[in-house]
Design goal:
globular, 8% helix, Porin, mainly beta
Length: 355
């Protein structure tokens, strides 16, 4: 009962907290960094898992593989430079954005699982653009940038509720208008199982679900110039052996708002076969009329590949692609790359497994 009260209070506070939004981007405004959640439209607050879950919900580090230690890598390099696909590429710029991370089980009573992620981004000849009300993209200036951010996360499980915390520190350097900008942040997230509550009311679609959860994430961020707050409220469901044997389905919905960002909705689906092969699709859009043109569609695939080594039995590979119809590649030129690729290696350390 106490966990339900905490979850409800946290949820209500989060919704009320999301009242202020609008303005320009903050240094910690969330990009779609991870391939799995990107390909599902940015709906990662409920079912993000493993090493990179803190980018969506720090409580998610509890989900995923059961091994003692996991190492992972994300590459977001500019893979498209040909002229015929320049509308989807970082045209004329050199861009590299990589993330490495580890996740491990702890022996502490107050924390079950911890994760450390290091994010490094470097770009040159980037065009700073602005979008007019008629969707025309105007170049303001060109600059070089370097950014490094470290995420330290931990999470604890309490029966039906997972609670996580992330500390963020880093810096960003922009050649033309700021030599160095220091960053700091704090994320608090929960994920709460609600299947039992709805199943007791006889809902057929709910009773067939393997899991139904809601999640809430509060982000407190500060850089040299600005402080910002962001809230995410999510709902997700998973189904196993759907329609045919070995076919699974994951459905996610995220609503995000806060200081210096518009009200954003992300929705996505993931189909899995034999828990080894996955296809995903999603959409992300803004509810406010002045930002409705800033939307993206995404799709992706994933696989769990068996390997024969002493410590690693599988390699997990995920790939995502996102595109922005109507505004071409101009929206990508400043911050992003359409392709995201991740490789995850779960290790067994001394034969111990996550209980």
């Amino acid at each position: 009962m106490a966990q339900r009260i905490i979850a409800v209070v946290f949820f209500i506070a989060s919704v009320a907290y999301a009242g202020n939004y609008g303005g320009g981007p903050n240094a910690f405004a969330q990009l779609s960094l991870t391939p799995r959640e990107t390909s599902m439209g940015g709906s990662g607050s409920v079912f993000a898992e493993g090493v990179f879950a803190p980018y969506w919900n720090p409580a998610g580090v509890l989900k995923g593989d059961t091994t003692q230690f996991t190492a992972a890598f994300i590459s977001r390099a500019n893979l498209l430079k040909s002229a015929w696909v320049s509308q989807f590429a970082l045209s004329g710029s050199n861009f590299d954005h990589n993330i490495i991370g580890v996740r491990f089980k702890t022996e502490q009573e107050w924390i079950d699982v911890a994760a450390i992620c290091v994010q490094y981004r470097q770009a040159s000849n980037i065009q700073q653009t602005e979008l007019s009300p008629v969707d025309d993209i105007t170049t303001i200036s060109e600059f070089n940038s370097t950014e490094a951010i470290v995420h330290l996360s931990g999470a604890k499980k309490f029966r039906a509720m997972d609670i996580g915390l992330t500390l963020k520190v880093g810096y960003a350097s922009f050649s033309s208008f700021a030599p160095r900008n220091y960053l700091a942040g704090l994320d608090i997230g929960i994920s709460y199982l609600i299947k039992e509550y709805f199943s007791d009311r006889g809902l057929v679609l709910v009773s067939k679900a393997d899991e139904i959860s809601f999640a809430t994430v509060l982000e407190f961020n500060r850089d040299y110039n600005l402080a910002s707050r962001t809230v995410t409220v999510g709902l997700g469901a998973s189904y196993i052996n759907l329609i045919i044997s070995d076919l699974d389905l994951v459905v996610g919905l995220d609503v995000k708002a806060g200081d210096f960002m518009p009200l954003t909705v992300g929705m996505g689906l993931e189909f899995g076969f034999q828990q080894s092969y996955f296809i995903r699709s999603g959409v992300n859009f803004h509810l406010l009329s002045e930002y409705q043109s800033l939307r993206f569609f995404s799709f992706g695939a994933g696989a769990v590949v068996p390997v024969k080594t002493r410590s690693v039995s599988v390699v997990k590979v995920d790939l995502a692609y996102q595109f922005f119809p109507g505004i071409g590649g101009g929206y990508l030129e400043l911050v992003d790359s359409p392709f995201k690729l991740s490789i995850c290696l779960p290790f067994v350390v001394k034969g111990r497994e996550h209980k």
